[in-house]
Amino acid sequence: MSFGIKQNFLPISIFCLICGTTLGLKVNAAVTNGADIYCFMRNGGNTHEPSWQAAYQFIKNKKQGLFKTSPKQAATLIVEEVVQDPVKYQDCISYLGDLYTGDSSSIKIDNDKGLENDLSTTMESQEKSPKGIDRYDY
Length: 138
Description:
The protein is an all-alpha fold. It has a domain at 33-127. Helix content is 64%, strand content 0%.
């Protein structure tokens, strides 16, 4: 009699073990995304490059499958996540352009003169950079 109970208990326990671990992974994976990492690091005072590298590495590791996520796709994913929840990422919206230019912008500009200085510096750096180089070509 006890042998019959053990036979029924084994498949049920295996099923619960598999379902429990699968559901746990899905819940944990949905908690953090690339935008969370990028925005958290930028708001913490990091420049664009280390913030981008951390977010991009997270996005690449998260995606399973044969094809890898390109840097352009990862940047688009971050922008989509911010656009879908602008209230959550309100402190990060000003950094989104940095995903495509590679520059580290400041969230606070004191006056129009500061804006003019930033614009002229950006224009000078663009003129000096070699043409035809894709900053996302890793």
